[in-house]
Amino acid sequence: MSIVHHHLIYQARVNTHLNDNSKKELTSFLYSLLNVIDMECLIQAQLKLSKQRAWTGIVGIITSHIAFHYWVNEQYLQLDIYSCKEFDRKKAITYLNNFWNSSNVKTLFIDINVNEDFKIDKN
């Protein structure tokens, strides 16, 4: 049996109404993303707004984590999905693009199988 590690890194400019008071919507976003990629929650979502008006959110999944940083003023998002369970990255990216109304999207997908070389897909 091969152990897999999938890591999706997603960066984008976003056009959204989310702001300093959007904790509930961002929490819902994380749980919806879990459903989209068929992951099971291990540690409930934690979110915090910094003094710089940037949201940080993380949710533990059975197979690792999902974390994001969203800068309200800059309308910029950085998100990571890391999992030892395979997931459909195209489905995840489509959901992210739609939810955040993203532009200038950059993605990096690293597919790591133990005892094999990294497979990297950069867009």
For the terminal residues, how far apart are their CA atoms? Answer: 30 Å
CATH top level is: Alpha Beta
Spatial order of strands in the largest sheet = 2-3-4-5-1-6-7
Backbone structural class: alpha+beta
Low-confidence stretches: none
Radius of gyration: 14 Å
User: CATH superfamily membership, which one?
Assistant: S-adenosylmethionine decarboxylase
Percent of residues in beta strands: over 45%
**How many DSSP helices?**
2
The residue-averaged pLDDT reads: 92
Give the beta-strand count: 7
Largest sheet: 7 strands, antiparallel
What oligomerization state is this entry in?
single chain
Helix content: 10-25%
How many domain regions?
Answer: 1
CATH architecture: 4-Layer Sandwich
Gross geometry: globular
